[in-house]
Design a protein that fits this description.
There is one protein chain. By secondary structure, the protein is α+β, with helices and mostly antiparallel strands. The two termini are 22 Å apart. Strand 2 and strand 3 (47-50) form a beta hairpin. Strands 3-2-1-7 form a 4-stranded mixed β-sheet, covered by helices on one side. It contains 2 helices and 7 strands.
Length: 135
């Protein structure tokens, strides 16, 4: 198996769901029932990167993957240390955040993961068969 992008479909909260005691949305709420996001998996199925945000459908989510791939050559990685001393990275294309990752205890590991992502995600095989997973 090779490194690849995977689109994940998540259920959107329904009208009957309540968050922190909030009043549910009116019955006329016509928001889509699902939302989509992507993640980039290494060959060993570990998640290397995710997109920040959600898309209304799988097609627009896949389109964002192709847009990311077009901008990877000019992309920049930024490394940030959080309040707990852990490191994360974000990839910027034209000043927009297009990918990020989870936290690492060492900056070196964050740097290595970002560079691995940039290299592996630019491979044409990474988008050959984008799988859509429904949860």
């Amino acid at each position: 198996m090779t490194a690849r992008f995977q689109v994940v479909s998540l259920p959107r909260r329904t009208v009957d769901d309540r968050v922190d005691g909030a009043v549910p949305a009116p019955a006329a709420d016509v928001r889509p029932r699902r939302r989509f996001t992507w993640r980039f998996l290494a060959a060993n199925n570990r998640s290397l990167a995710t997109v920040d945000g959600f898309f209304p459908d799988a097609a627009s989510c896949i389109a964002s993957i192709h847009e990311l791939k077009r901008g990877l050559k000019s992309a920049e990685c930024d490394y940030v240390r959080d309040e707990n001393g852990l490191w994360t990275w974000v990839v910027h294309v034209d000043q927009a955040v297009v990918a990020s990752t989870h936290r690492y205890p060492r900056q070196l590991r964050a740097r290595m993961t970002c560079e691995s992502f940039r290299l592996l995600a630019s491979d044409p095989a990474a988008t050959r068969n984008v799988q859509v997973v429904y949860r």
